[in-house]
Design a protein that fits this description.
With 146 residues, the chain is an alpha+beta fold. The chain has two helices and six strands; from the N terminus they run E-E-E-E-H-H-E-E. It has one domain (7-129).
Amino acid sequence: MLANQIEPEWMDVDEILYNLHEKNGKPPSMQVSYRCGLETIREWVCFEHGGYARQKAVIWWVKRFGHAACPELTEEALHRISEIQDMQEPCRIEVIQEGRWQRVRAYDFTVKAGTPSEWNDNPASKPKPPSFNTDHFDVFDTDIDF
């Protein structure tokens, strides 16, 4: 198929994960992973970059937090997302194939049960993500003789 023949596709979002993404020699960014059925679509939000990447990060932030100030640091953004959780989240995303990669083109923030958007009207009721706890692990590879 030719590039101009590829149609964008709307995908329902089941879960959204936000993680710190670090790459040697580059400022950190936030990796957003949208789980859509069996597929995972990723996008990177570059708060600490300059130019177009920063501009896209500000637009991404405003769509979710209104006109609240966009953080300068990725760690600040991740803290706000994980601790305060007062953001709008999409029920579906529009994705287009660009070569080997898929790019998120648009977001639908309509409240829909069973999707991350169901807390858009009442973010305080959103459950906090579980923190990683090593208490249930009793064997580490340092405890095993090889």
